[in-house]
Amino acid sequence: MPKDLITPEDEQVIVAAIQEAELNTSGEIRVHIENNCSTDVLDRATEVFAELHMHLTKQRNGVLFYVAIKDHQFAVIGDAGINAIVPDHFWEDITAEVIKHFKQDHYATGLANGIRMAGQQLKSHFPYNKQGDVNELKDDVSFGD
């Protein structure tokens, strides 16, 4: 189980980073963690994105952090609304930051830092709107097998 490697404290750090990032943006961030990825990591992340209904946000501004812990696979992907406007190096910069911490087995720190980086970009392109902005997706960490 991935929960064996992600402690409740780690989960709290990750959820707090999601909530912090989403305070300033209408963007939505999710984290999905599982043990293995038996296919291409981007293909699997895309499947999970759909399974979590992340493509249904009003502004198409969801971001998924996907981790297959035992297979050492990571991907961060965004919906069409984000991909249309973020700089080319956006996903690579986040990936580099997250993996730097993963290599030291600091999963929560890596994810939290990457989430905050994503939040900064989302804030500039999808600012929080006090009128009618709702949290469209859960902030909790989802776990697979």
TrEMBL record:
It comes from the Bacteria. PANTHER family: BLL7265 PROTEIN, UPF0603 PROTEIN YGCG. It holds the Pfam family TPM_phosphatase. Residues 4-120 form the TPM domain. This is TPM domain-containing protein.
